[in-house]
Each structure stands twice: as structure tokens, then as C-alpha cells.
Design goal:
By secondary structure, this protein is mainly alpha-helical. The protein folds into 2 domains: 2-68, no CATH class; 76-165, no CATH class. The protein is built from 7 helices and 4 strands. The strands form 2 sheets. The protein has a two-stranded antiparallel ribbon with strand order 1-2. A two-stranded parallel sheet has the order 3-4. Strand 1 and strand 2 form a beta hairpin. It is elongated. Mean pLDDT is 81; it is low at 41-56.
Length: 168
């Protein structure tokens, strides 16, 4: 097993054998494997993951990141949620509606709605598992939308923090 330049784990045939021998109920959905890994077609392993042949990435880190920003591992209910409606429904005053609306437009322009959905999923998961996280850190506390979602506890509207500090 090795890790490539992009942080992906690449399995050799020996690595896969060890995984299945040590844990016969391994629930791996997809596995990146070296080009030389093959399995007999008569194998009928119930827990066999989809093997994805690893090809050396001929791209820059930015291209790799851009390609992978479309892959979000979260339940379908979060992937399909109307995050803008969710956030706007949390607003209690006209000032909150205006600030949240302005921020949502900026998030949409930067194609960051999936990120907001994922953050909502992350916050819900942490709450459901009693995981404690910080009050807020860095420029993220300038976002009223992140405050409403629960990412941090600093009300940027109350403290008159500019969203531009976050979305630089």
C-alpha cells in the first residue's frame, strides 16, 4: 500500500489479500489498485469492492482538486436539500434575511452550495454524536450563514463583521 502525490491510498494485490484475509467482512465500496492487480473471474466475493485501476495522475494539484470537488460523501437528503431555503428560514429579522441573502448570493457565485450542504451534514453528525467543536476560528466567523448553519458560535451580524473577510 502506498500513498500517491494527491493523498490517495493505492493498494497492491498483496494489500488487498491482507485486507480480505484479516477482515472478511470488509465493506470497501471502491478501491484504487495498481495496474497489475487481477482477480479470477470465478471469484464470487460478497464483499468485493469495485476495483478501480490506478493510473498515474497527469494533472496538477489544482486540476486534481477541481475534479474531486464534485465528489461529496454525504447522505442524499443533504445533497438534495435546498440550503438557501434552509438558511433563510432560520432568519428572524429583516436584517438577518438581508445579510443571509447577500452571503448566499456570494456563496452561489463561488459555486459553494455543496460545501454549505456538507457543512450542515457535518454539524448534524457532530451534534448527533455529541462531538464538541470550537466556538469559531479565523475569518470563518465573518460569515453569518456559517453561524446559522452552526459551524461557529459568533454572530457576525451582531459584531458587524464583513463577509468579505471570509470570502477573500
Amino acid at each position: 500500500m502506498r500513498i500517491d502525490n494527491f493523498g490517495q491510498i493505492i493498494y497492491s494485490e498483496q494489500d488487498l489479500c491482507e485486507v480480505f484475509l484479516k477482515n472478511t467482512k470488509a465493506k470497501l465500496d471502491k478501491v484504487l489498485v495498481e495496474d497489475n492487480v487481477t482477480f479470477s473471474s470465478d471469484l464470487d466475493l460478497e464483499y468485493m469492492p469495485d476495483l478501480i485501476k490506478y493510473q498515474i495522475q497527469k494533472c496538477t494539484q489544482k486540476e486534481f482538486d477541481t475534479r474531486n470537488q464534485t465528489i461529496w460523501f454525504m447522505p442524499e437528503q443533504y445533497q438534495n436539500m435546498d440550503i438557501a431555503k434552509f438558511v433563510l428560514d432560520l432568519c428572524n429579522t429583516e436584517a438577518e434575511l438581508q445579510r443571509a441573502g447577500e452571503e448566499l448570493i456570494l456563496f452561489q457565485e463561488k459555486n459553494m452550495f455543496m460545501l454549505l450542504r456538507y457543512l450542515k451534514y457535518l454539524v448534524d453528525t457532530m451534534r448527533n454524536n455529541n462531538i464538541v467543536w470550537g466556538v469559531g476560528r479565523g475569518s470563518s466567523v465573518a460569515s453569518f450563514v456559517l453561524f446559522l448553519i452552526g459551524v461557529h458560535k459568533v454572530n457576525s451580524l451582531y459584531y458587524d463583521l464583513s463577509i468579505n473577510e471570509f470570502l477573500k
